[in-house]
Description:
The chain is mainly beta. It has helices at residues 44-51, 234-242; strands spanning 2-3, 11-19, 24-29, 34-42, 58-68, 73-82, 87-92, 105-110, 114-120, 132-139, 147-152, 158-163, 167-172, 187-190, 197-202, 207-212, 218-223, 228-232, 253-256, 264-269, 274-279, 283-288, 296-302, 309-318, 327-335, 341-349, 352-361, 371-373, 388-394, 399-406, 414-417. The protein is 4% helix and 49% strand. It is globular. This is WD40 repeat-like protein.
Amino acid sequence: MEESEPSVRYSVQTLNRVTLDYEPCCLEFWDTTHFVVGYYHLDKQDEDNEEHGKAQVRSGAIDIMKIIGSEGDIQYLERVAFNTSSVLDLHFQESSNRVEGSDPILVAALSTGSLVSYKLRQTTKSSTETRFQEQTFHQVAPPTILVTAFQFHTDPNIICAALSTGEIILCVLDLSSPAISPESEPRSVDYRDTEKLMTICNHDLEAWYVVPSIDGISVLSGGDDATFRVSDCSGFLAAHSDGDKFSVGAPVQRVDRRIHQAGVTVIYPLSKSIMLTGSYDDHIRAVSVPSVGRPTVLTELDLGGGVWRLQELSRTQHRPMDASNDRVSWVVLVSCMYAGVRVVEIKLENDIWSIDVLARFEEHKSMNYASAAIPSADGHLWKEEGGAEFVSTSFYDKLLCVWRTGPQDGNRCATISATGT
């Protein structure tokens, strides 16, 4: 049964507002203070050129930033710019972040059919030494195709990527490239027409999101065709593990066309069989995806804006002596496009599923595509009393906000401009 958005449980306090140089569309933290922001810029003149059949010109950049102090001050550290590509998505390779003090590996999806990877130097010895090391371009599609989103597979050397053609691909990435000095030409690897790349399924329109299942055997994807697809990738994984060329037939696919009323923009596995989904139809849904049978909606909530991205903040499982009263809950950060940001709780209690809004942040005046929780010193993203801090952005007004949730009142705000120069 569909629910309407209820009143919130926690207040929000704005700590800082920063005007960025370009339109932000993705961001991610790699420790408690450092984060990266990816930008997507379309030349205004080329919007008119598209009507005359001319190619659009996109540019972009990735900034490294740092949060300083309890007031949410932002320090700009470094930028890498792309003159002919925009950034659509970026993620750190999780395995590269597990060793304390190690340099994390960052991969970004570009509008020119490629992924670009870097090893980020945590500290620099001089002001001229770059933090962006070992730059490599991984060409996974023709340069006219956008890589709209990607995720690392449970095997950290494999990525799942969504393309603007509707294709969902798997690719074995070579992230062990030799070190490259700032003066050297970037390394480029073409994976097309090789055994290291495979198309796992095709959406009828643009593919917007892809993520591996928790066990890694399937790939879950969504697209502008309003479909939710589950594709088996065990054949590709077996071939990769054995070092053989992939020669098995087309993967088994399951397609749902009934649940979503518009494009499927994000999927997040809560368990092997329960998925959170987001859509342009403004709804967040908990969906049961059994191994046999059709997916079904367990609960859904209209958040007032397209649900673009999800980040799990915490999960809690209570197991009383009476197992029938078992309670499980997840707290999730939601980027809601033109409706701002939500913190929601998804709960299963006494066999009843529900979604409640815990907090709203609505200072953004344009599309909120990118938001992230700031990790605390103990690694937590959310505390039981509702205390947490966040960074969120909006696209057209190029705004970055730092804010917190909790019982405190007030809405102090400082405004600065980050020029990146």
